[in-house]
Design a protein that fits this description.
This is Superoxide dismutase [Cu-Zn]. One of its GO terms (molecular function) is copper ion binding. The chain is mainly β and 171 residues long. The termini are close together. Helix content is 2%, strand content 30%. Bound molecules: copper (II) ion. Residues 74, 76, 78, 98, 143, 145, 156, 159 line the site of copper (II) ion.
């Protein structure tokens, strides 16, 4: 591995081979201060295997009236690899909107993932996607949301505030 991977995006190094895996360290916003974990992307034939493991998800709260439930949690790739907290009441806005390179509706963005199910704060899952390879997502961000994704509302599934963020790096 090139020793400066963590200081500059990989494409700054001409002639470097494309990475075959990628990794994001997740940390929580003020809305989920104990949230931490990782997402690992591993290229496999025809796509990538995505594995996520986090602890510290907030306690489940059922929907009431027009207020969305807390959990299961919307889980996506967003455009910008910037996890600055910003406004603590509406964190991680620097990560931008959903990564949407093919101008698709929400529900069919390459980084629209299954929701994360919390088990008393712990979640783990793995799934296959054919929508990208690791090299395509370096420098973007993983976002975990407070509320579920409805896979229908535009542009981001009405998944509410951002409770976790991680920059995706070559690995
Ligand atoms: Cu999102």
């Amino acid at each position: 591995m090139y020793p400066y991977d963590y200081y500059l995006p990989y494409h700054y190094y001409p002639g470097r081979r494309d990475p075959e895996s990628a990794y994001a360290q997740i940390s929580g916003s003020k809305l989920a201060p104990y949230l931490q974990g990782y997402v690992l992307f591993k290229d496999v034939p025809n796509g990538a295997e995505v594995t996520v493991e986090v602890i510290g998800l907030p306690k489940y709260r059922p929907a009431h009236g027009d207020v969305a439930p807390i959990g299961p949690h919307g889980f996506h790739i967003h455009e910008n690899g910037d996890c600055a907290m910003g406004d603590e009441t509406d964190p991680f806005q620097q990560a931008g909107g959903h990564w949407n390179p093919y101008n698709q509706p929400h529900g069919h963005h390459p980084g629209d993932f299954p929701v994360l199910f919390s088990n008393d704060g712990y979640a783990r899952m793995s799934f296959f996607t054919n929508r990208f390879k690791s090299k395509d997502i370096i420098g973007k961000a993983i976002i975990i949301h407070q509320n579920p994704d409805d896979y229908r509302s535009q542009p981001s599934g009405d998944a509410g505030k951002r409770i976790g963020c991680g920059v995706i790096r070559a690995y």
